[in-house]
């Protein structure tokens, strides 16, 4: 029953997501540039390296941790909420952004890049899930998706929106261990990956916007950090 509900929710969320992208083309050039910006940004590299080291350090103890805590970390309702947010969170955040804005371009390209990178790593590492269902355990896709959603929310809307988004992202990561779908190392690296890509792409986005201003644009900024610029 739970799997059926998750599948239905995923279909609805995905449909809503692609309807939000109607008339908007994801640019592979933007994605490549964003990835390059992520790799060249010191803060992004530190977060990613920290996540990798955290995953390595916890790997030795993760099986024992999993045996002791899977199914015992959360109330079932909270675990279900974490699962749902891991699927739908990024779509909800993206759908709240004006499709014609630069923020939408930043968010959509960052989220697509995160999905491509996360699942590429999954196929390369081929790590068995703790429930032995398949070899797509590392990193946690739900966790990386929820943390990039929270990072995007922070860059677009500020703390007022990103604070609850980060709390839900943390809940998502814990729910994946609770559900016996991921080890602790999968969740740690998934969280670091989502934050890293969200921050790295924002650097490129900010660079492009500052270039518009240097070229004679006007910047208007409100309390939610939603920005608009246009050429004179």
The level of helicity is: over 70%
Number of strands: 2
> Helix/strand-derived class?
mainly alpha
Which oligomeric state applies? single chain
Summarize this structure briefly:
With 232 residues, the protein is an all-alpha fold. Helix content is 73%, strand content 2%.
Account of the protein in words:
The chain has 232 residues and is an all-alpha fold. It has one domain: Vanadium-containing Chloroperoxidase, domain 1 (Up-down Bundle), CATH 1.20.144. The chain contains 9 helices and 2 strands. A hairpin with a 5-residue loop joins strand 1 (220-221) and strand 2 (227-228). Helix 2 packs across helix 9. The protein is globular.
Key features of this structure:
globular, two-stranded antiparallel sheet, mainly alpha, Vanadium-containing Chloroperoxidase, domain 1, disordered N terminus, 232 residues
How would you summarize the topology of this molecule?
Blueprint: H1 2-20, H2 28-40, H3 42-59, H4 62-69, H5 76-95, H6 102-125, H7 141-157, H8 159-178, H9 184-214, E1 220-221, E2 227-228
Antiparallel strand pairs: 1-2
């Amino acid at each position: 029953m739970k799997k059926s509900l998750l599948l239905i929710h995923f279909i609805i969320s995905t449909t809503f997501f692609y309807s939000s992208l109607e008339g908007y083309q994801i640019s592979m050039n933007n994605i490549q540039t964003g990835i390059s910006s992520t790799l060249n940004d010191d803060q992004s590299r530190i977060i990613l390296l920290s996540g990798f080291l955290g995953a390595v350090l916890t790997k030795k103890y993760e099986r024992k941790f999993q045996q002791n805590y899977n199914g015992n970390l959360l109330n079932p309702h909270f675990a279900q909420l974490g699962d749902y947010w891991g699927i739908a969170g990024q779509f909800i955040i993206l759908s709240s952004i004006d499709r014609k804005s630069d923020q939408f371009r930043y968010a959509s390209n960052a989220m697509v890049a995160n999905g491509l990178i996360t699942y590429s790593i999954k196929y390369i590492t081929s790590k068995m899930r703790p429930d032995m269902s398949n070899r797509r355990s590392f990193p946690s896709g739900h966790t990386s998706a929820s943390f990039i959603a929270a990072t995007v929310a922070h860059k677009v809307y500020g703390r007022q929106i990103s604070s609850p988004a980060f709390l839900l992202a943390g809940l998502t990561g814990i729910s994946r261990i609770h559900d016996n779908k991921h080890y602790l190392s999968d969740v740690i690296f998934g969280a670091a990956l989502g934050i890293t890509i969200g921050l790295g792409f924002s650097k490129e986005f900010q660079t492009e916007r500052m270039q518009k201003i240097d070229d004679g644009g006007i910047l208007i900024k409100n309390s939610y950090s939603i920005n608009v610029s246009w050429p004179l």
